Amino acid sequence: MSVALVTGSAGLIGSEAVRHFASLGLDVVGIDNDMRKRFFGAEASTAWNVVRLTSDLGESYTHHDVDIRDRDALAEIFKRYGKDIAVVIHTAAQPSHDWAVRDPFTDFDVNAGGTLNLLQNVREHCIEAPFIHCSTNKVYGDRPNSLPLQELETRWEIEPGHPYENGIKEDMSIDACLHSVFGASKVAADVMVQEYGRYFDMKTACFRGGTLTGPAHSATELHGFLGYVMRCAMERRTYKIFGYKGKMVRDAIHSHDVVAAFEAFFRMPRSAAVYNLGGGRHSNTSHLEVFALAERITGNEMRTEYHEANRIGDHQWWIGSNERFQQDYPDWKQVYDVPMICQEIYEANVDKWIPEA
Ligand SMILES: NC(=O)c1ccc[n+]([C@@H]2O[C@H](COP(=O)([O-])OP(=O)(O)OC[C@H]3O[C@@H](n4cnc5c(N)ncnc54)[C@H](O)[C@@H]3O)[C@@H](O)[C@H]2O)c1
């Protein structure tokens, strides 16, 4: 028996990983306690996805409604599967800046403490298993905002010829900048994942994601950029824009492309690897640009409300470079760009996200 253990298995990246690794013939053990509902309310619950995974995958998926902060319950699961665990994919997290400020203890306990709990269990029970960690570009804090940017008609853009023109690389410093409470808890996890790679010679990777997206996102105002834009367009909700004239730029990568990268690492793991992983130059958008796209796809006029103040520490321009990952894993190819992603989010949710009467 070969087991893929996935935390946050009902979430966007977790559920895509569950399906993908099951399709490779592994038994998948998922851990998710629907904490997303506690963070963001009922509309963000991921319980629906557990029902789908269980009915679609049958015996190849086993779900555990367990909190990653619960060390005893986690240890039970790791003891049960032991060395059969062939890979651990850690996606469970408190993922929002704004929420973290409301409850820093819970944010840190889930993001930093939960990650440490998993690393230590891998060390004790299945040390050969690659540990794939979903980190974030927020580990760079607000440092990207010090890059020289130009204002174009629909977006901010980095000055031509800048070393990061094709995307921000992993050599950007994470020191001496504002991270937000969320960014700090993710830095702690990221550094600990690297440390278990170096100190204990485990096969660990931090994937510092840009905007991760896809139709399985339980999109809500505080988390899930493209999903929430599409939800607003479809349900005729008002989308609140915070600062930067709506021209801030995000790169966006589909969960399929993310999980394909995880598979590449699983097949040829390294120790203490760190990769930026995002849409890059291939797949990025500003708010204004994606609003126009959402209008074309849905046929609905976008309702927006502009707030002058930007969110503290929010990136004005983020396009990450996938170059380091592509050098290490040249067979990995990105499939999706922003129009494909938005179209797919629309089609997958057209029966679910219905305008209020
Ligand atoms: N979505 C993005 O734009 C983005 C960008 C960069 C990094 N990331 C990171 O990628 C990872 C996955 O993000 P996502 O968008 O799939 O998030 P998600 O919220 O869709 O999925 C996370 C899942 O983890 C579960 N969970 C949360 N706390 C838990 C706990 N204590 N115990 C057990 N389960 C718990 C939630 O219920 C949810 O189903 C996170 O680490 C996030 O910080 C996401």
UniProtKB/TrEMBL annotation:
Name of the featured protein: NAD-dependent epimerase/dehydratase family protein
InterPro entries per record: Epimerase_deHydtase (IPR001509), NAD(P)-bd_dom_sf (IPR036291)
Pfam families tied to this protein: Epimerase (PF01370)
PANTHER family registered for this protein in UniProt: DTDP-D-GLUCOSE 4,6-DEHYDRATASE-RELATED
Family recorded in the similarity comment: Belongs to the NAD(P)-dependent epimerase/dehydratase family.
Limits of the NAD-dependent epimerase/dehydratase domain: 4-278
Phylogenetic lineage: Bacteria, Bacillati, Actinomycetota, Actinomycetes, Micromonosporales
Matches recorded under SUPFAM superfamilies: NAD(P)-binding Rossmann-fold domains
